[in-house]
Amino acid sequence: SSAGAGDFFEGDFATKDPSPDVLPLSPLPVSPPLSFRKFLTMQEKRVVVTIQYNANSGLRPYFLTAAKRIKERHPDVVIEKLILPEPDEPADRVFAISVDGKVAVGGKQRSRGEDGDGHRHVFVSLEELGFAIEKARRKKRPHSSYGGIDEGTAVSYGEGDGT
Fold it and tell me: pTM for the complete prediction?
């Protein structure tokens, strides 16, 4: 006989009791539902990283790589893409990264480098960018704690810690 969507198979969790060693020792705490107001408040406190570059400039792969690297190191940030109009002069191409509206990396000087084959080079200092993101976090959320994966310690910002 063919099995339907509601049929259970032997060994399925619904057909027999789970073994005692799989049962949790204590139930997980249940959080209250998130209100829309709280959701909006949380979104306002996220750091916005804007990556801007010129259309048809060949800089899109740099955007994709930068966005990926930023999200890997700072998963809580919001990444926005801003495609600028194509410049009149190729030397006026722009690749810039802003953190909460302040340019952290880039401008015309960062995307001007070309090798002999005409390939563009863009340098993005993830260390500088990380400092800018941390500074923006402290400004938006002064009473929060942040812990680095690499450091293994949490750093608290706000009242009573001298900042």
Answer: 0.61
